[in-house]
Amino acid sequence: MPSCRELEGTTEVSTEKFLDIMPSCRELEGTTEVSAEKFLDLFLDAYKETVNEVVNLQTSVWNCIPSYIHFEDSKAEGICDYIKSNIPTFERRRATAEANNISTKFVSTATTTTTTNESSIELLEDGFQFDNEDDIDRYFSQLAKSCSQVIVDDTDDSEIDRFETECFDFLHSLTYDPRCTTRFDSRTQCSNVESTTTALIRTPREIIEEHFLSTDASLNIIIQGAGPVGLMLANALTMLQQRHTHQHEQENKIPPIRVLLLDTRADAPGRKSPYTRNWQANLDLRHFNHGITDPRLAKVFASLTEFNPEFNLEDNDIDETPGFTLPTNIIETLLLLSNRDNDGIKFLFGINPLDLVDDLRDIPNLVLVDATGHRIEPLKRGAACDDDNHDDDHNEVVSSKISTNNDDHSVIYNFRPPAHEPFPWERDAWETNNSNITDFYELGTFGFDFTEDYEFLEEHGHGLHIARSNDILYPIDKETGAPISVSWLDIHGASKFKRELRIDEDDNLFSYLYPDNGDFCEYCLPRVRDNLANRRKELYYCEEFCRTGYFSSSMSLIREDVRSLIYEGRFNKTFAYYSDEGWFPTLGWSFNPSKILKSLTQEILRDHGYSDNPAGMPVRDFYPALQHTIDTDNKLQKAIPEKDLKIVEVLRRISVSDTGGENWPTITLSTQQPFIYTEGIKKKKKLNECVSDNSCNLGDYLDGSQMIRIGDSFTTGDGLKGSGLYNHATMVGIFMDVILNKLKKLASKENTAPSNIAQE
User: Fold this and answer.
1) Which residue range is the domain that position 235 belongs to?
2) Core-most of 317, 473, 544, 627, by most CB within 10 Å?
3) Residue 737: helix, strand or coil by DSSP?
4) Are 244 and 281 in contact (CB under 8 A)?
């Protein structure tokens, strides 16, 4: 993507490229019509409007939760503990080693002061690549070109091998091989020369002053957390200017948006830990269409699908959902590279954000974003973490409307979220014929409508009960009022069983009724087994709420020519499909265990050193440990539910099958604590209170700046397995659309007003 950097030094730029670059360069110099202060207000208003719409959409999906095995969880393990995510990873390792009297040689002897230069980094991994920032555009060009090559029936074997090398192997290399552009932060200038990349040549204070304090005409944003949601938000925000200018060249220009991304997951000051979550992730190309993010990302993501890399969905006749699949860490790395190649985005890795408070105090027009996955403060569902440990007054509320009074606690029984109506900005877009607005509400669970189901469901014992404590909503157990949680035992890289290995030998519909928890699913079970033709209404509702597919495959999202070669075993070095060599899982299982099996799994993962390993424990090692624990505990054998025993049987079959290897499949355990905030802007805490329990964040120290929530810091996605990132990405897109629509309306007002914004 062209940048102002291309105009500097000896780089030759064509006239066409010069004309393409100059508008964005002028904007970066602050020549705007909308003041930064006014744009800041518009930005926060757009965020509040996005939150208001998403709350009802999110809670609507919670109607599925009673069908899953869930358990009371008023104080889940760790949620009220000392918050450590502000402390860089390498510092935590050092503290742990010192506490255990372990002698550890650390990668760096640098200090974390913000006022002096860091010392040089002493040790680098073998094969460290000293690449250049200017290489990033070549990386994207190579991927888009190589991965788009069509493989026909008579394609030579050498061409297929070259496809794998230039597409899949290169994707793997960018993510797993250490290189300057993916490991160092903005304190290091990557320039292909080893001597200039082994030292942090600038301090955090210098980065902040250079990036923010040079102008008061920009909107300045600090994003804490460089995971997929934080990276995507940064990318989308910095694309807003080009996106708005492209659509409305003669209307109000918006000020530059400058972003600083902070991440504590680091091996040393200034040096990031690699992304390791290699789970299959499914997103939609519409998350990246219309220039929402760097167009180079859309080309790469589309290249392995049935869609043309130069896709434009309005002109595409394919009826299928334009989804794509890649491992999560691949998506994160590509977003990181795109952001690194963006002059409006800087990074600081391996530094405690609270150490930057003094450096950030004087930054004007500053917004803070919590994209840490709710890791910098306790999750207070109810009063479990409150110091006074007061009881909730669970007063029944007749209305389903959520109260905006955030000073009390209340319960809503048989909560009925309303049907989705077109977003206000959608209606405005239709009226103004604004084609730049994307129909994000059609994506994923945001399109669910349960309003016609409520009467029937309630009649048969299915009800969603939620509580509100201050500004947080969460589902509860009706009888006890305690918050409930749902656990997922995920098996990554496993294949589907052949027919003779299926768990249930009944009809296909019954084989998918798992889990089938709650009164309503108990009502459904015999009716589904009978499959009575005269019970079509019952069958419809039973399928809708109790037919849960526990096997998932992303193979259909990969274009046909590549998919056929995967089936033939040509890409075994890449895909974990009947192969133990690959790094790209496309198949898996997601089971919903009881609290008993959840606890057993936690113990085994912890005892074998996998409790904090996002890649998971090989099933081949996990199953024997699990079966041994069950076989040697008579009480456990009597207590473990039948459904859990079916999961154990699945694990046995996987462990002895030809797909059970040293690396794949792997098993991970997650516990979702469904929640959503009714107000996304964080309330500031009193310093004397939050210092005592280590829950202070940047927003508490910076009086003039608001901190907003995004991703898992705002809500648990859709509350169901596997779709959190999908819906978080959708919320980012909605947020950008609201901003653009407000800018459009602002321009319309200014065109009819006698004065101009620039004169205010």
Assistant:
1) 32-61+83-90+203-378+693-759
2) 473
3) helix
4) no
Distant-in-sequence, close-in-space partners of 476: CB < 8 Å, separation ≥ 6: 411, 465, 466, 467, 482, 483, 484
pLDDT digit string (tens) for 717-745? Answer: 664 545 688 889 989 998 998 998 888 88
| 660, part of any domain | yes
For residue 683, what are the CA distances in angstroms to 169, 697, 706?
46, 11, 9
Residue 130 lies in a domain: no
pTM of the model: 0.86
d(CA 193, CA 196): 6
- Are 601 and 714 in the same domain? no
Residue 117 DSSP code: P
| Residue 663 shares a structural domain with residue 523 | no
- Whether residues 520 and 615 share a domain: the answer is no
On whether residue 356 sits in a domain, the answer given is yes
Write down which residue in 609, 637, 672 finishes a domain.
Answer: 672
Element (H, E) at 429: helix 424-432
CATH number of domain containing 297: 3.50.50
Same domain? 291 vs 374: yes
- Please tell me the distance from the alpha carbon of residue 685 to that of residue 681, in angstroms, as a whole number: 12
The tokens for 723 are 């779709």
Quote the DSSP letter at residue 587: E
Are 581 and 538 members of one domain?
Answer: no
Nearest to 735 by CA among 134, 73, 293: 293
Whether residues 518 and 584 fall in one domain: no
Low-confidence spans in the chain with pLDDT less than 50: 1-32, 76-79, 81-82, 104-122, 196-198, 250, 309-319, 386-406, 499-513, 533, 719, 721, 755-760
What's the CA gap between 161 and 316, in Å, rounded?
30
One domain, residues 214 and 226: yes
Sign of CA dihedral 470, 705, 759, 245: negative
- In angstroms, the CA 571 to CA 582 distance is 8
User: What are φ and ψ of residue 687, in 5° steps?
Assistant: -60, -40
For residue 406, give the 3-state DSSP assignment. Answer: coil
Q: Which residues contact 105 (CB under 8 A, 6 or more apart)?
A: 123
Neighbours of 116 (CB within 10 A): 10
- Residue 66, classified by CB atoms within 10 Å of its CB into exposed (0-12), middle (13-18) or buried (19+), is buried
Distance (Å, rounded) from C-alpha 720 to C-alpha 487? 10
Domain count, the chain: 3
| Cα distance between residue 333 and residue 291, in whole Å | 19
Question: What would the DSSP string read from start to end of 137-179?
Answer: HHHHHHHHHHHT----TT--HHHHHHHIIIIIIHHHHHHHS-B
Q: Helix, strand, coil proportions of the chain in percent (round to 5)?
A: 40, 15, 45
Reported as a single tens digit per residue, the pLDDT across 43-89 is 999 999 999 888 877 787 788 888 888 887 655 444 454 455 677 77
CA distance 419 to 585: 36
Three-state secondary structure of 219-273: EEEEEECCCHHHHHHHHHHHHHHHHHHHHCCCCCCCCCEEEEEEECCEEECCEEC
Say if residue 645 is in the same domain as residue 706: no
Q: DSSP 3-state assignment of 490?
A: strand
Of the candidates 682, 709, 84, the residue with the CA atom closest to the CA atom of residue 406: 682
Query: What residues pair up with 221 in beta bridges, in sequence order?
Result: 259, 367
Measured in whole angstroms, the distance separating CA 88 from the mean position of its chain's CA atoms is 21
- Integer Cα distance of 476 and 442 in angstroms: 28
Peptide bond before residue 665 is cis, with ω within 30 degrees of 0: yes
Does residue 300 contact residue 151 with C-beta atoms inside 8 Å? Answer: no
- CA atoms of 171 and 130, how far apart (whole Å): 17
Six token digits for residue 208: 């902040």
Asked whether residue 365 is domain-assigned, the answer is yes
